[in-house]
Amino acid sequence: MRHVVLFHSVYGLRPAVRTAADRMRAAGHRVTTPDLYGVAATDTVEDGFALLDKIGHEVVLDRARAALRDLPAETVLAGFSMGAGVAGALLAERPDSAGLLLLHGTGGAPDAVRAGLQVHLHLADPDPYDAPDEVDEWQQAMIDTGADLTVFRYPGVGHLFTDPDLPEYAPEAAAEAWPRVLGFLAAC
Questions:
Q1: Closest to 188 in 3D by CA, of 89, 104, 107, 78
Q2: Helix or strand run (H / E) with residue 6
Q3: pTM of the model
């Protein structure tokens, strides 16, 4: 059993994040899903970016830090899209994290990764927010740091392909992703 903190996307704390957390809990993990915005989730990505701009990236990071404050050092850092970026950004402050789970976005500077850190990336291929050459460069940098990296690319799907409430939902890809995610958490 692992402690996992699961950060939401730019939309806010949507039902898909809560459902993902419930899947992880059903597998025996303790999961925290902090609301980094403190307001209702948005309905569009454009509204989500506007809300992020209004709240501010530093406030979002401070709220994420507060959510982690009482969690064990070896908590797995995880996130959806923007939340993957939050998880990666906090990795330097949480060097004993058991793993880094990135759903729908690369996230984090590879220089914060310790050798042997287990990292999983689940990404649309291509992804509108992570260009293929940037993903390849990020992947190589992660490998160069010694991360135990596994990348899953899901061809022909939309960015948040695991969110059943969005038009880009791809049930077949989501059905592939969740057992991989749970296997990753079991191995951390």
A1: 78
A2: strand 3-7
A3: 0.96
